[in-house]
Amino acid sequence: MKALATRFTMFVLGLFILSYGVALAIRSKLGVSPISSLPVAISKVTGMTVGRITIFFYLVLVVAQIIILRKDFKVKNLLQIAFSSVFGFFTDSALSVTAALAPQSYIIKLIFLLTSVFLMGLAVFMLLVADIVNNSPEALCKAIAEKYSIDFAKVKIWFDLSCVAISATVSLIFFGNIGLIREGTIIGALFIGKIGGFFYRSYKHKVVSMLGI
Q1: In whole angstroms, how far apart are CA 84 and each of 19, 74, 95, 141?
Q2: pLDDT at residue number 211
Q3: Which residues are in coiled coils (predicted)?
């Protein structure tokens, strides 16, 4: 029971860190991660907060999983809804806390961006170690990969590209530009997973042993 409580705590802390990674990427104005790009674009169009749009977006992804997996969808995966709500709240909170941050020079913006990529990579590691439930985007990619026998990495790449393409289209239609699809989007796509993987390979066993999970 103690081990489960520790894993839940780590998972929630991972979501908290992830939210600040998203917030710093937005504040850098150099581009957000592929998954965040769509909620950010829709937020600018509707005026709703990024956190609320993220909650709705993740809910749609859970529904998509249910449609794809049907009887193979596990009840445990409904926890994604609860955790997406927590993540949405954390994201809005992080954006509120960082509202006064408005870096002007490119170097400072780049520091913000790289810090955000590091934080998101660290958060990915913590979510993987906690092993409570997959984040909704990864869970949908996994469902598609398993259902149609497609390599997960390929599904993830196409999912990320789809998010970026839809986000860019929405921004072009309403604002005449591609919004926060910039170099940071590419950097995030290339390195967030790699950083998370590095931590996972290097420190998973140490953390599991230290926390007794």
Answers
A1: 11, 17, 16, 16
A2: 80
A3: none
Extract the tokens encoding 26. Answer: 């937005």
Q: What is the mean pLDDT of the chain?
A: 93
Residue count of the chain, please give it: 213
Other CB atoms within 10 Å distance of the CB of residue 104: 8
Crossing angle of the two packed helices 2-28 and 79-97, in degrees rounded to 10: 40
- Rounded distance between C-alpha atoms, residue 162 and residue 160, angstroms: 5
Angle between helices 79-97 and 50-69 in degrees, nearest 10: 160
* Residue 130, SS3 per DSSP: helix
CB 167 within 8 A of CB 35: no
Q: Report the distance separating Cα 90 and Cα 153, nearest Å.
A: 28
pLDDT at residue 209 in the model = 87
Q: Tell me, what's the pLDDT at 166? A: 95
Task: Please state, in angstroms and rounded to a whole number, the distance separating the CA atoms of residues 207 and 15.
Answer: 17
In 3D, which of 177, 16, 166 has the Cα closest to residue 86? 16
Whether 25 and 33 have beta carbons less than 8 Å apart is answered as: yes
What is the pTM (predicted TM-score) of this model? 0.91
Q: What is the pLDDT of residue 21?
A: 97
Between CA 85 and CA 54 the distance in angstroms is 8
CA distances from 59 to 64, 83, 108, 193 (A): 9, 10, 35, 23
Q: Which amino acid is at 196?
A: G
In the structure encoding, which two tokens stand for residue 2, read together? 């103690």
